[in-house]
Design goal:
This protein has 162 residues and is mainly β. It has strands spanning 2-6, 13-23, 31-38, 44-45, 52-53, 58-66, 71-80, 89-98, 114-121, 128-134, 150-156. The chain is 0% helix and 49% strand.
């Protein structure tokens, strides 16, 4: 998914940090992070590929300074981990941005610094193909013979991981 954020100004924002939190139900195997990449040069995130997000998982990215009107993104590629029973499921996701700059001289943050969305994961779609091949053809029958050689190949032709 792509998380977009913008400095609506009128001033430059300093000390910008983007936080993202998930509410993954207990017992769910969660999401595997395949990659994360902020678009802002010099930005860094405290999560890496290979991390498994479960429960009340969260991460943050330190962005630094953003000019008035500047728009940036954080792109995270995840894969839902297989859930026994293969049911569809949903995760709540809340992203927020903060700054060390004064946003509103009268107080507050103008009320537009966070957004919640629901991430829906559809059930896995598996299509297994099984091929059996007789390795020695033809196999003559011999009295007392106990071995026949076969190759069994199972292939998941997707689209989901099996």
């Amino acid at each position: 998914y792509v998380l977009s954020y913008r400095n609506n100004g009128p001033s430059t924002a300093t000390g910008v940090v983007v936080s993202d939190s998930f509410s993954i139900p207990g017992g769910d195997n969660g999401l595997l992070v395949l990659s994360i990449s902020p678009s802002k040069a010099g930005a860094s995130c405290n999560i890496t590929a290979g991390t498994v997000l479960t429960g009340a998982a969260s991460y943050s990215c330190t962005v630094g300074t953003m000019a008035n009107g500047e728009v940036q993104t954080i792109t995270m590629v995840t894969r839902p981990l297989y859930q026994p029973g293969n049911a569809g499921r949903s995760f709540s996701n809340t992203a927020s941005v903060s700054t060390s700059s004064v946003e509103n001289p009268t107080g507050g943050n103008n009320g537009n610094n966070s957004k919640t969305a629901v991430l829906t994961v559809l059930p896995a779609l598996l299509d297994l193909l099984v091929n059996t091949t007789d390795l020695v053809d033809p196999v003559p029958y011999f009295s007392g013979s106990t071995w026949l050689d076969y190759r069994v190949r199972v292939t998941n032709i997707g689209p989901s991981y099996g």
